[in-house]
Amino acid sequence: MNVDCFQELLKPVTDFVSSQAVEPALVEELDRRFPHDGETFTAIEAACYKAIQDGWMCAQGAAGRRFGRVIEPSEETGGLSVDVVDLENIVGPHHRHPTGEICMIMPLTKDAQFDNTPRGWCVYEPGSDHRPTVTDGEALVLYMLPEGKIEFTGQ
Q1: Which of 65, 73, 85, 94 has the CB geometry, 3.0–4.6 Å to 81, for a possible disulfide?
Q2: Number of H helices, E strands in the chain
Q3: Where are the domains positioned within the chain?
Q4: What's residue 31's pLDDT?
Q5: Are strands 113-114 and 151-152 parallel, antiparallel or unpaired?
Q6: What is the CA radius of gyration of the chain?
Q7: Is 3-152 assigned to CATH 2.60.120.10?
């Protein structure tokens, strides 16, 4: 597994997401097209585990909060950047989503949740903000940002 293979594996998801409005209703369509127990979701999750093991994903930070941008926004990704974070029982830094954020939640601990959402999808509309929070264990979160835009507020 390398970045090019990972980007190709994500292509059905990035193609779909980049053609949709970033709004709460997108969660239902992602659940339908890429269910959390389906082939695509499971393959992406396995690729994340392998990439972390190989040292090129979630290579920044320290235990409890590891992170890193995996793919810069480009024509091939429909203008989406792709980041992956590994968070454990943490409230992360406050940030704003100028163009929205689409999250794929992959608990590493059975009951872990990301912003009160278990395994599956979570969507934040353009202009929304939050402190990314993982409770009840550890989770990987792959998030896509239209145009790669994110604003850390320092709050």
Answers
A1: 73
A2: 3, 10
A3: 3-152
A4: 97
A5: unpaired
A6: 14
A7: yes
